Amino acid sequence: MHKRQHSAISEFTAWILFTFLAVFLAFPLSSSRYKDISWENFITLPSNALNFSNLTPPGNALKSAPLNDEVSSLKPSPDLLKTVSANTRPQPKFSAAAAKYDSMIERTAKQHQVSPVLVKAVIQAESNFNPSAVSNNGAVGLMQLLPSTARSMGVHDPMDPQKNITAGTKYLKMLLNLYNDDETLALAAYNAGPETLKRFNNQVPPFRETQAFVEKVMLYYHSHLDS
Fold first, then answer.
1. What is d(CA 37, CA 182) in angstroms, rounded to the nearest whole number?
2. How far apart are CA 216 and CA 210, in angstroms?
3. Exposure of 190 by Cβ count < 10 A (0-12 exposed, 13-18 middle, 19+ buried)?
4. Contact between 207 and 223 (Cβ < 8 Å)
5. pLDDT in tens, the chain (227 residues)
6. What is the distance between the alpha carbons of residues 220 and 183, in angstroms, rounded to a whole number?
7. I want to staple 145 with a disulfide (CB 3.0 to 4.6 A). Which of 82, 92, 100, 150 is the partner?
8. Could you give the residue ranges of the DSSP H alpha helices within the chain?
9. 166: nearest Cα among 121, 124, 111, 125
10. 207 in Cβ contact with 142 (< 8 Å)
């Protein structure tokens, strides 16, 4: 009985000595391996990493830009506003009578190589598609031609809708050729006459009637060009 107890104590004592020796031998190895490691080197960030400690300069408070400056930087340019405004305006409609003359206009415009939309816009501005319209200065018909102008285009009955469209389209084509396809100048000459434009260096004359005519025709023309 005493011999068995003495054997157990010896085994326990040996186990304690073995554990102590193992710790003693391991400690110098561990300490020497890691003695040069510091917390500054323990975690290393890439050289291009953001250093949050430098975001705010020392002694300077973080300042936010004034709200008005940020809002002003978001304002669209005046040109953009004009473009949006022009594209969102209601599309002007041709007279209800226009459909009656569509085939005549298409055929004649194709024959003389003029945009049918431009011819249609001229008729809208000149007579509102009234074939019996007569102006104070004697211009007649859909395209409001003076009898002398109609005759120069080979038409002697400008009150006839087809003949009026033919003469007016030929005259418009002649003006487009004269002004190198400048539609604005051609329309100004259609209203005021080529001789008038010569007096103003081939520019749109400063007459309110002519300017209003050109503006109205171009509005209809561009509004329906892709329709």
1. 83
2. 10
3. buried
4. no
5. 544 555 555 666 666 666 656 655 555 444 444 444 444 444 455 555 555 445 455 555 445 555 555 545 555 566 655 554 555 557 799 999 999 999 999 999 999 999 999 999 999 999 999 999 999 999 999 999 999 999 999 999 999 999 999 999 999 999 999 999 999 999 999 999 999 999 999 999 999 999 999 999 999 999 998 76
6. 13
7. 150
8. 2-34, 39-42, 67-73, 78-88, 102-111, 116-127, 147-152, 161-178, 183-192, 194-199, 208-223
9. 111
10. no
How far, in Å, CA of 46 to CA of 43, rounded?
Answer: 10
Burial label for 105, CB within 10 Å (0-12, 13-18, 19+), is buried
Closest CA to 127 of 110, 144, 147: 144
Structural tokens at position 115: 């945009």
The amino acid at 167: A
135: left (phi over 0), alpha (psi -120 to 50) or beta: beta
Length of the chain: 227
Look up residue 25 and give its two tokens: 């031998």
Q: Which residues are catalytic?
A: 126
For residue 200, the surrounding DSSP H or E stretch is none
